[in-house]
From TrEMBL:
The chain crosses the membrane at residues 6-23, 70-90, 102-124, 190-212. It comes from the Bacteria. This is DUF599 domain-containing protein. It comes from Rhizobium changzhiense. The keyword Transmembrane applies. InterPro entries: DUF599 (IPR006747). Keywords: Membrane, Transmembrane, Transmembrane helix. PANTHER family: OS09G0494600 PROTEIN (PTHR31881:SF6), PTHR31881.
Length: 254
């Protein structure tokens, strides 16, 4: 490995840790991240469930979260297997790289080390997804301890404590899922290392830029932020007393 390879690898680790640290903060340039905004929506969801006796909707949401986590865990396992299969094709890869421009190929040992690093990324993602799946399972069990609506009215404090346990477990499970997904995204930037270390740093920077934009400047973030209702929404008590625009509230005979 060359000095540029070590610098690129250090850059990859630095921006990964820096981005993770950035998301642990609540704001960036005065903007709340998409992850923190969704944490508040999780809280609203669980507290809304206290007002429902029939919680089939909530259990379906829990099942959807588990199924998505299981999908990515399985995908990570397949990716790890593909990395080991790639190690058995080193000579073929050498022949391909020899004909490609701008590719710095350091030999079998360097290539195998790079593939090993890629497998480690997918292994890290698998452990995060696996732990997240288990935590979502625990979250489902804790959700079963939420009292029915009539019991909530009798002891509001106990109901709120049960809801907070579910919220905390759900947030931790979602955090582990996000970390595993982040490793999957960064593995795309890691692929640039197979070309040369400069492309590695460029692709890593592009991936981090895209992820940061989605967290702080995307339409998805704006979609879940609190905003005033549109002018044509007739749900408030004030607007309900106003005449409707189609004339149905006009006095009879007009």
């Amino acid at each position: 490995m060359t000095t540029a390879d070590y610098i690129a690898l250090a850059f990859f680790a630095f921006v990964w840790m820096g981005y993770s640290w950035l998301l642990h903060g609540r704001t960036f340039f005065g903007r709340t991240s998409l992850t923190h905004a969704m944490t508040e929506r999780r809280r609203e969801w669980i507290y809304n469930s206290l007002r429902r006796d029939l919680k089939m909707i909530d259990t379906q949401i829990m099942a959807g979260l588990q199924n998505g986590t299981a999908f990515f865990a399985s995908t990570s396992i397949f990716a790890i297997g593909s990395c080991f299969a790639l190690l058995g094709a080193t000579e073929k890869v050498d022949a391909v790289f020899a004909d490609l421009p701008f590719v710095f190929h350091g030999g079998h040992a360097v290539f195998e080390m790079k593939v090993g690093g890629l497998a480690a990324l997918f292994g890290y993602a698998f452990f995060k997804f696996g732990w997240s799946y288990r935590l979502f399972n625990y979250c489902t069990i804790l959700f079963g301890s939420i009292p029915m609506m009539r019991d909530t009215e009798r002891d509001i404090i106990a109901a709120e404590r049960a809801a907070e346990r579910v919220i905390r477990m759900n947030v931790i499970a979602g955090s582990n899922f996000n970390e595993g997904l982040r490793a999957i995204f960064l593995s795309i930037g890691y692929l640039g290392w197979f070309i040369n270390p400069y492309v590695f740093m460029l692709t890593t920077a592009i991936v981090i830029f895209v992820l940061a934009r989605r967290q702080f400047f995307s339409e998805a973030r704006l979609a879940i932020m609190d905003a005033g209702p549109p002018s044509n929404l007739h749900l408030s008590a004030i607007r309900r007393d106003m005449p409707s625009s189609d004339g149905r509230d006009l006095p009879e005979g007009l």
